[in-house]
């Protein structure tokens, strides 16, 4: 998977799609810059990354739609890494189209040559009515489109990728899902709202705090997350707190590691560094140095 995000204004996204649509073409609203994207060297070739809000009929299930295009012909391959969100993605790529469950570890992708990937990011809980079984059974795994949508989906990859731009891709995907929408499910909103609160409220650093906020018992909360999110509430808390840590480190301000660890809900600095290194692959200090090294070429221009 490439590209995981939080909702922000279109102006916050420096890579948003700015091409003029053709006559009569719907222009979806863009969504903002990604969270959980690890530092990397600037691409030396052509690169396009855009995100769009879904049409109204898909909004109960889909958080946004996204596209990544690259042209690195004649350039060195580029490594991109992210810390994925608690969401299911449907990803269209030539001969590689799959439905991916929540990815619990760091995701690494090497970009080379020329390529295009179009994705549908479902809301937390939003894919449960399509799968019709607990989303925890799809974590760290994937399914082919026909495994969920049957024979009607066999030609969908070709139809989507044949479009010249993401607006056409969005229209194709919207028409397909309009024919396969499941009944409304209140537990989607319940799960998505709790995940969104964990994302936005830094005070929610324990499962007990989430239980108190949600009004659900601890076991009921865990059952809801197992069924609709695909990972437990503790995992979601840790992932979003590490997203927060990455943002603070990327801001370049002097930090007290002990204070940062406590603010993020860690018992001490050592536990924070352990979790950070296990997931990100480097210590916070190494991460800060890497950010500075990757920014240096831009600063010299």
What's this, in brief?
The chain is α+β, with helices and mostly antiparallel strands and 301 residues long. The protein is built from 11 helices and 8 strands.
Can you characterise this structure?
With 301 residues, the chain is an alpha+beta fold. The protein has 11 helices and 8 strands. Helix 5 packs across helix 7 and helix 9 crosses helix 10. The chain is flat.
H/E element sequence: EEEEEEEHEHHHHHHHHHH
Main sheet: strand order: 1-2-7-4-5-8
> N-to-C terminal Cα separation, in Å?
31 Å
What is Rg? 20 Å
pLDDT < 50 runs, ≥5 residues: 1-27
Share of β-strand residues: 5-15%
Estimated helix fraction: 25-40%
Number of strands: 8
Class by helix and strand content? alpha+beta
Mean pLDDT, rounded to whole units?
Answer: 86
Separate helix tally:
11
Shape: flat
**Largest pleated sheet:** 6 strands, antiparallel
Question: What is the topology?
Answer:
Layout (H helix, E strand, L loop, with lengths): L45 E7 L9 E10 L6 E5 L6 E4 L5 E3 L6 E5 L2 E9 L5 H4 L10 E2 L1 H5 L6 H6 L4 H13 L7 H15 L6 H8 L3 H12 L3 H18 L6 H7 L5 H12 L3 H17 L1
Antiparallel strand pairs: 1-2, 2-7, 3-6, 4-5, 4-7, 5-8
């Amino acid at each position: 998977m490439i590209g995981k995000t939080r909702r922000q204004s279109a102006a916050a996204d420096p890579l948003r799609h700015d091409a003029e649509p053709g006559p009569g073409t719907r222009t979806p609203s863009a969504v903002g810059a990604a969270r959980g994207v690890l530092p990397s060297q600037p691409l030396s070739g052509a690169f396009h990354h855009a995100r769009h809000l879904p049409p109204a009929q898909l909004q109960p299930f889909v958080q946004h739609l996204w596209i990544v295009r690259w042209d690195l012909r004649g350039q060195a391959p580029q490594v991109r890494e992210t810390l994925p969100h608690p969401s299911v993605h449907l990803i269209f790529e030539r001969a590689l189209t799959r439905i991916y469950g929540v990815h619990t570890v760091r995701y690494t992708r090497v970009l080379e040559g020329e390529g295009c990937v179009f994705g549908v990011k479902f809301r937390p809980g939003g894919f449960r009515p399509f799968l019709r079984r607990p989303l925890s059974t799809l974590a760290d795994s994937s399914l082919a489109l026909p495994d969920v949508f049957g024979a009607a989906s066999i030609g969908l990859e070709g139809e989507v990728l044949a479009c010249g731009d993401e607006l056409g891709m969005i229209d194709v995907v919207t028409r397909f899902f309009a024919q396969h929408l499941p009944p409304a499910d209140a537990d989607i909103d319940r799960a998505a709202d709790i995940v969104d609160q964990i994302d936005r409220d830094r005070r929610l650093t324990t499962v007990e705090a989430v239980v108190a906020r949600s009004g659900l018992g601890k076991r009921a909360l865990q059952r809801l997350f197992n069924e609709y999110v695909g990972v437990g509430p503790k995992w979601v808390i840790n992932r979003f707190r590490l997203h927060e840590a990455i943002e603070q480190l990327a801001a370049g301000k002097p930090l007290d590691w002990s204070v940062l660890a406590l603010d993020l809900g860690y018992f001490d600095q050592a536990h924070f560094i352990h979790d950070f290194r296990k997931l990100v692959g480097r210590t916070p200090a190494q991460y800060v140095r890497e950010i500075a090294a990757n920014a240096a070429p831009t600063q010299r221009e």
